[in-house]
Amino acid sequence: MKVNKIFFSGLILLVFFLTASITCRQTATPTAKPIVPQTAAKPITGADQTDKYISYLRGKRVGLVANPTSVIGKQATADSLLALGINLKKVFGPEHGFRGNASNGAKVQDEVDAKTNLPIISLYGKTAKPTKEHLSDIDVLIFDIQDVGCRFYTNINTLEYVMEACAENNKELVILDRPNPNGYFVDGPILEDSLRSGIGKHRIPITHGLTIGEFAQFLNGEGYIEGKAKCKLKIIKIANYTHAMPYELPVKPSPNLNTPQSILLYPSLCLFEGTIISQGRGTQMPFTVLGAPALKGKFPFSFRPVSIPGMSETPLHQNQDCYGLDLRNYDTGLLRKNKQVNLKWLMELYQAYPEKEKFFDFTQSKQMGNFDKLAGTTQLRKQIIAGVSEADIRKSWEPGLSNYKQLRKKYLLYPDN
């Protein structure tokens, strides 16, 4: 009997310890679902928000300013509008053409689109601005073109001419806004009045930090439209967007900006278009490499520009080995961190170039414009030649740069953070 009592007491204790052990293990194991970090909503372009403008366009005669970046989803905006029953009368094409088959700087002729049978009016040929006749059978004009946020990228010139035409002919302009991939920073010297040209029309820095919709408001607000006229605007805003947000373009904005890397390097590398240094035109890696034949022995990396129809028919240093910098794997996160145009590459290659008197010689470079027009100032070239420090170069951009940054705030549709 005593043995049984001992046995049952031991059994009870054993059960107690086993139960306690199981309870402890169950308590230590979380039963709640793991927390998954939430990601920010992706930007939705104005074009992709058809519910915001299709009903507005119905019953109207519509014109469209477009190029290959003009897409709704994965379909060309022109094709989509026609499929949605919009009375699209004609398309206006900027540099590179409506379907993007023209090279950099090449004049584009009026034509009829083979796919839609729509008339295409070139804004990069006989005229840069729609005429009264062009707009006579149109009630409203749509602007849907991707920009990359630089003063010397000609889409903002096209925007201005279109706004002038609309203001002169009492037509409304509907802008389908798109993110600016370089909209996270504002930097560079302010354009000097004496250097106004087709690659720089207004007193803005190299990177202006505005979307096309915001830039249109800037042009209206600052009285830049011819005669200080005001263009009637209807802007379809981007959803879920801030300027600080990284954005990878779904379509290359032009033939020689064919990778996300090239688009982010473009604000810094386009300055080389006014030098003897090739930026990789005539290769499949434009605006990600820099070099020239005279730098042989200075740099191990090389590339050879050749004629490429639709991209660069007669590139600088054609069929010659160019030696220099390979920036295809450069960490563009550094650009986002510094929020500055990179001047170090310009300074480095100038110092390395053996015939310095030829470095900024436009007659040698045969590019889209001379260096001073690209930079927007005569100072930068002189400062590079004189060996002025980067810090002092940047100081010389003030107070103009800071004044522009303050002015820009008036026209923002999206926050900076």
TrEMBL record:
Enzyme class, broadest EC rank: hydrolase
Domain Peptidoglycan beta-N-acetylmuramidase NamZ N-terminal: 62-260
Record Pfam families: NamZ_C (PF20732), NamZ_N (PF07075)
Top-rank taxon, per record: Bacteria
Any one GO molecular function term: peptidoglycan beta-N-acetylmuramidase activity
Keywords: Glycosidase, Hydrolase, Signal
Domain (Peptidoglycan beta-N-acetylmuramidase NamZ C-terminal): residue spans on this chain: 264-414
EC number, UniProt record: 3.2.1.52
UniProt signal peptide: 1-20
Protein name (database record): Beta-N-acetylhexosaminidase
Organism annotation: Adhaeribacter pallidiroseus
